[in-house]
Amino acid sequence: MTPRKEYTGPTLLSYGFRPFFLLALGFSCVSILLWMLMYQGDLSISGPFQPVDWHIHEMLFGYTSAVITGFLFTAIPNWTGRMPVRGWPLGALALLWVAGRLSVAGALPLSFGFTMVVDCGYLAAILAIVLREIIVGKNWRNLMVVCPIGLFFISNVMFYIEVMQNGESDHARRLGFAVVIFLIVLIGGRIIPSFTRNWLVKNNPGPLPTPMNSFDKLCLVSAAVALLLWVGAPEWLGSRGTLVVAASLHFARLLRWQGLRARTNMLLLMLHIAYAFTPLGLLLLAVDQTVSGLHILGIGAIGGMTLAVMIRATMGHTGRELASTWDLSLAFIILILAAVVRSALVNIAPDPMTVLWTGAILWTVAYGLVLVRIGPWYLGQNPARRKPS
């Protein structure tokens, strides 16, 4: 195990979650509003993508990639016992992420090819660092994380290739979604029952979450198969059938985690609710190939899970009590409302644009509340030293 050396650089660059969670929160507060301006024709960009592709790409490979990086760069040192990536290397990675966002928006005078290199180079660097840390740390148990990260990088490359060949993305959109959803069922399936168990043992003795067993492995396999079939042939009856099977298994998996018994703990409840949007979204994809299922997954599952994880991880790793404040709880409720509004009401409203703007504003308010509350924590020293839960 590598000795822990005292870090003397900027607090923002002391741990992976600090710059990347801050970037993710800030970017999320502006990106959806920019998208709505593009959608109604009041804003244009000169980047490599049409507005719809920009929106999809930036929510997956912009916002979500920052959250994934912050989570992995914080979790891997705990897995391996090695020093975290910090200081100028971490700052350089953050700047590369920013350069990707600017180049994709056309704010940097780069060609299509150079934009692709800058943007995809970020995920390539993250993949290389994650692979190095796990191999050098001989943490073989978590080597499975490398595969979805590698697929996420490949899907970003495919995104550019499809746009270059066809003018818009197709399979790469779905592959990017599929990888993130699989990461939710993989990592969420580890942290949600673990956190719930720890809290229930101390606060509500009784039935505990079922330990991971062969049923969980079946759930992972079902999700992988269903998502890959959806990527390749979303309209095929077999793809729809596997999505229904996967959704059913993951609903059952969630029930095994005793979420109702932990409902008084808002931080835990956020995780359980966010995970519930995954099987719900898979089920909607099976019965309705419109964007409703994608927004249930994008806002409810991906948005909800990433927001819940960022809040909890930030509290734990900055020495704060693991208890939600009123504004953080309100932010999560508003985000779930945004998922419902965007997915359900837009198809029945007499004025869809008003519903779209309502969903966008709800999303922005939710992330704005979180940014105002926990944003300063990334810049300041921890109030107390304690082991994160």
Would you give an account of this structure?
This protein is mostly helical and 389 residues long. The protein has a domain at 9-169. 72% of the residues lie in helices and 0% in strands. α6 (171-203) packs antiparallel against α9. The chain is globular. The two termini are 21 Å apart. Mean pLDDT is 93; it is low at 385-389.
- Secondary-structure class: mainly alpha
Shape: globular
H and E order: HHHHHHHHHHHH
Helix content: over 70%
- This entry's quaternary arrangement is single chain
Let me know the average pLDDT.
93
Measured distance between first and last alpha carbons? 21 Å
Which segments are poorly predicted (pLDDT under 50) over 5 or more consecutive residues? 385-389
**Strand percentage, roughly?**
under 5%
Rg on CA atoms, Å: 20 Å
Short descriptors:
NnrS, transmembrane, 12 helices, disordered C terminus, membrane, transmembrane helix, mainly alpha, Short-chain dehydrogenase, 389 residues
Fold topology:
Elements: H1 17-39, H2 51-80, H3 88-104, H4 112-136, H5 146-166, H6 171-203, H7 214-232, H8 237-255, H9 266-287, H10 291-317, H11 326-345, H12 352-374
Helix pairs in contact: 1-2, 1-12, 2-3, 2-4, 2-6, 2-10, 3-4, 4-5, 5-6, 6-7, 6-9, 6-10, 7-8, 8-9, 9-10, 10-11, 10-12, 11-12
InterPro entries: NnrS (IPR010266)
Transmembrane segments: 20-40, 60-80, 87-104, 110-131, 143-163, 175-193, 267-287, 293-314, 326-349, 355-379
Protein name: Short-chain dehydrogenase
